[in-house]
Amino acid sequence: MDITPITVEQLNNYIKKKMDGDEFLNSVYVKGEISNFKLHYTGHMYFTLKDEKSLIKCIMFRSYTPHLSFMPKDGMKVVILGSVSVFERDGVYQIYCKAMKQDGMGSLFEAYEKLKAQLEKEGLFNEKFKKSIPKYPKTIGVLTASTGAVIRDIINVSTRRNPNVHIRLLPVPVQGPTAAGQIVEGIKRMNQEELADVIILGRGGGSLEDLWPFNEEIVARAIFESEIPIISAVGHETDFSISDFVADLRAPTPSAAAELAVPNIIDVKKNIEIYENRYKNSLNKKVELMKLRFEKCMNRKAFTEPTQKVNELLIALDMLIKRNTKSVTKIMNEKSSEFVKIATRIDTLSPLKTLTRGYTIVEKDEKVINSINQIKINDNIGMRFNDGRAEAKITKIIND
Amino acid sequence: MAEKKISFEESMVKLEKIADELEGDNLTLDESVKKFEEGMKISKKCKEILDNAEKKITVLVGEVEKDFSINSSTEE
């Protein structure tokens, strides 16, 4: 009997084909505990799934890991959905995981999804209901456990940003059966007694079970009804809780929540100084502008040569006076020469002049007479000579 | 909500408003000087609030409010 050996490769290939052809192995749900978990730098996850009696190698490729709602850890009990196949090079079979959830959380996970869908439908996650986080809160209310990293991180980050911040911790259990009720009471008390300007609701990371109080409906509704804005910082960056969706702001970690809630005092002071500088600059600018306007004004002639206008007026006045004087003199001269002319004429016409030439003026009753019809015999008449007067009596009248 | 916080936040809003007004062209010099003085007064007040706020980390234990320190809590 001839024995024809096959290669290892051929064998592994054969086994792989057998397994890949098996419908059951193509899609299996397997439960177990994670061990030897390694997150490879390529993003793929390598681990072993085991129970008390057995173990199997598992791989989850990077393309599936973003859908995980939690970060797998050694010791975690999980349910895996995947296919079993052979890695021919090493001759090992392993589960190629497509999905994974934490075991025992099945009902919780469903409850989470159901509540989330319901609240979303009611509008509790709606952006329009989100209150804005005050920029300069005086008091930060913190609802978390009084021990552990969360409160420590919040205090550290807050006091680093603003050494004078007031943090008011209202301790609440963040897991266990009483947690949800006490968180609700805490939120209500903060509101009723106005204990804070903003509330940080915080918890460290954990399993879905651990985070459960933050997925309770009463907590979601208390957050929604809070007048004080709430920042939710539950679990790790990759964890989401219903609190995160309802809260006015979701912070990936408690430290981040503190950064969001507490303004950096240095920045605030810088802002105030920027305002002061803006005031100074704009006022200086305005004063400069006024100065320029003033100088422009002062450079105008009215101010630089204030007497010029007066001088101009004086000159004009002088000219007017001169002109007037001239014309008055002219008129006076004209009048005076006219007077001389008239006086000369009067002089020539004056009877007194005629008298010097030997004529006399005869008067009767102090009136000049120029006809013999005005006199009778024996009338007394006056005679005016050049150099005096005489009286005479008419003795004879002769008509010519 | 604490009243002083609102006044601080409002003060900051006012500081912004005054800066805008001062940088605008609508104010006379007199008005500008007044606004400037008002702004400087508010900014001084804001700085005082920042500097004088007392650092307080408190914990509510039942109805009582106590000082809180991380060390004391980690011992619990």
Describe this structure in words.
- The complex is a heterodimer of chains A (400) and B (76).
- Chain A folds into 3 domains: 8-103, Nucleic acid-binding proteins (OB fold (Dihydrolipoamide Acetyltransferase, E2P)), CATH 2.40.50; 109-126 and 133-263, Hypothetical protein af1403, domain 2 (Rossmann fold, 3-Layer(aba) Sandwich); 352-393, no CATH class.
- A 5-stranded mixed beta barrel of chain A has the order 1-2-3-5-4. Chain A has a 5-stranded parallel beta sheet with strand order 7-6-8-9-10, sandwiched between helices.
- Chain A is 42% helix and 22% strand.
- Chain A is α/β, with parallel strands linked by helices.
- The relative contact order of chain A is 0.07.
- Chain B has one domain.
- In chain B, 67% of the residues lie in helices and 13% in strands.
- The longest helix of chain B has 24 residues, at 29-52.
- By secondary structure, chain B is an alpha+beta fold.
- Classes of the chains: A alpha/beta (400), B alpha+beta (76).
Please render the helix and strand layout as text.
The complex is a heterodimer of chains A (400) and B (76).
Chain A: H1 8-20, H2 23-26, E1 28-39, E2 45-50, E3 55-60, E4 77-87, E5 92-102, H3 106-122, E6 139-144, H4 149-161, E7 166-171, H5 179-192, E8 198-203, H6 217-225, E9 230-234, H7 242-246, E10 249-250, H8 254-261, H9 265-298, H10 301-304, H11 308-349, H12 351-356, E11 361-364, E12 367-368, E13 380-385, E14 388-393
Helix pairs in contact in A: 4-8, 5-6
Chain B: H1 3-23, H2 29-52, E1 56-61, E2 64-67, H3 70-75
Antiparallel strand pairs in B: 1-2
Helix pairs in contact in B: 1-2
